[in-house]
Design goal:
This protein is an all-alpha fold. It is 97% helix and 0% strand. The protein has a domain at 28-72.
Length: 72
């Protein structure tokens, strides 16, 4: 009976160790995905900032041209 109980405990310990290993692997993968997503969002924000800057510059140039035309 003691041998059976010991065998069951060893099996349970192995199963728990495997589950911990899977959890650790999943956690690592989620951290990688999170870092990748964060990087992608930062790139998207930078691109949006660049577009806004370029639009502001175009608007300023257009405004200057209109002022020059009005002065002529």
């Amino acid at each position: 009976m003691l041998i059976l109980a010991t065998t069951l405990l060893i099996g349970a310990d192995r199963a728990e160790a495997q589950q911990q290993q899977r959890f650790s692997q999943q956690q690592s993968r989620l951290l990688e995905i999170n870092a990748s997503t964060r990087s992608c969002l930062q790139a998207a924000r930078a691109q949006a900032d660049l577009r806004t800057c370029m639009k502001t510059e175009r608007d300023a140039i257009r405004s200057l041209r209109q002022k020059r035309t009005a002065q002529s």
